[in-house]
Amino acid sequence: MSKEAQQRMEKIVSLCKRRGFIFQSSEIYGGLNGFWDYGPMGAELKRNLRDTWWQTMTRDRDDVVGLDASIIMHPTVWTASGHVDTFSDPMSTCKHCKKLVRSDQWWAMMAEQKWTQSVAELVESGTNRFQPADLLKWGKGKGKQLAPNLALVRNPDVTISWLAEEIEKGRGPADATELYKFLATEQMAITGLVTPCPHCGGELTAPRPFNLMFRSHYGPVESEDNICYLRPETAQAIFVQFKNVLDSSRVKVPFGIAQIGKAFRNEITPRNYTFRSREFEQMELEFFIRPDDAVRLIHGHVEKWRDGADLSAPSPTWGWEMWHRYWVDQRTKYYDSVGLGTDVLDYHWQKPEELAHYARATVDILFKFPFGTEELEGIAARGDFDLSQHQKFSGKQLEVFDEELKAATDKLSDEQKKEFIDELFEGRKCADTTREEISVYADKLFKGFYLPHVIEPSAGLDRMALAVLAAAFDEETVTDEKGKAETRTVLRLHPRIAPVKCAIFPLLKNRPELVAKAREVEASLRRHMNVFYDEAGAIGRRYRRQDEIGTPFCVTVDFDTIGENGPEKLDTVTLRHRDSMQQERIPIAELRARLEAAIL
Questions:
Q1: What stretch of H or E contains 147?
Q2: I want to staple 494 with a disulfide (CB 3.0 to 4.6 A). Which of 60, 113, 339, 353 is the partner?
Q3: In CATH, what is the architecture of 41-76+217-396+453-464?
Q4: Which pLDDT score is estimated for 262?
Q5: Bridge partners, 261 (sequence order)
Q6: CA atoms of 42 and 63, how far apart (whole Å)
Q7: Phi and psi (nearest 5°) for 92?
């Protein structure tokens, strides 16, 4: 992270605490790493994001229904999903300070440390060249405080002596990553290169798997028989309740089930403020679609993705590729609607070697945070992996009956069915699938049954809240009424998600008639939107306070409002716009309609 980006992030964090967006959990007891509380403004912001997501994903559509499942579920759910065996990250432990480090994030953590930044200042810009004498001086001086357990600090003369020999023989550090490993190594001939701890410079152990699920027990007695887990994601509950939702809601494929809820992951190294936390909130959709084979049997062909394809309205002939692209497009439009346009977003289409074993395709929607471009949401084509796993482990049939499919296959001759099976087998030889397995699968299709496939858009609400705060944060130099320049801090939040939609001010708090009228305006708006009444301080200071929490509009009740300067402006107010700071005079009778049109 550049110095400028670091300063920007520090200002955002400071504002979030000062204005009641985000607090460290249990702060008066020293805090709890990886856990955060949302203050009055943060709670409103999250609720607005939650509501806009829910409105967009469920209420604006007729093919998505909702679910609110429990946090703790039967432990076999997590065995079936693979979380018990495979939901882990590589972890190393510092042999000196005993802190844990997520091994695959080691270099990113190193880049954030003061001691590594201090060493980097000794390296010739744009190269990997340095003077051993400079490093020796650093190890005997500044390094003692910054990285006390680094080999260069603990035994600087020995470390520098062999390092100088390696450089003389042309075997010096190949890159920046290797440089820090050289500095962490005291006896290279004995230990080989050592990976340093980002925190203190000490030696890290070899990586080992660390399961990220929080483990607990249900019932009054703790035993191996009543182990349970805090859910690491909300998606599995949707798969587990799939059949109940299908049977009770009169929906049919294609359709989706949406859920918003808390999830928990015992992150090894929570970092980057609220971005990587141990308790967070997810907003997930599982959208169930027909397998491509069923689409082909019904319609005779499957529409696959091609550049320029129309994604505006789903088609019955769409295959999984089109559905996947459709949801990427839909989610992009949502982000734009809350103020995150293409200028702050990026996309990572995972390569085959990056995909989960069950995924056909995954795209990560990324946001350009001050600390780097990181994932906001993943949209995965998951096939039928999840439903097939839960069907296998539970012994319950989760297949659906499709009347259109049955009607289409009833028209096929035995020869056509055989040709269909031959085509499936030929196309899946490389998947180690036997002809018998293909025949069983095809026979179910011929009877109208299949396990739906899934497209999964999975977003993090906390990450989204941090993203909109980072995108909205701005500082500009303005001139006050006395001609003095000052820095205005403003959150340019989209009005839809701003915690407070409108602030109402009486010009003076010691004039009862102004206060009464301002309270009257406040009461007329409060039932329809979140408003804030403020009468303390100069009007300019009140504007600045609202700018800092992102309030898009401020209304001032002045002497014109109560008719003291003539009847022509009676019952009008000043409406001030946050972004432009422009003011206009409008009748109180038109105020609500003007505001509602702007915040929807």
A1: none
A2: 339
A3: 2-Layer Sandwich (3.30)
A4: 97
A5: 282
A6: 31
A7: -120, 155
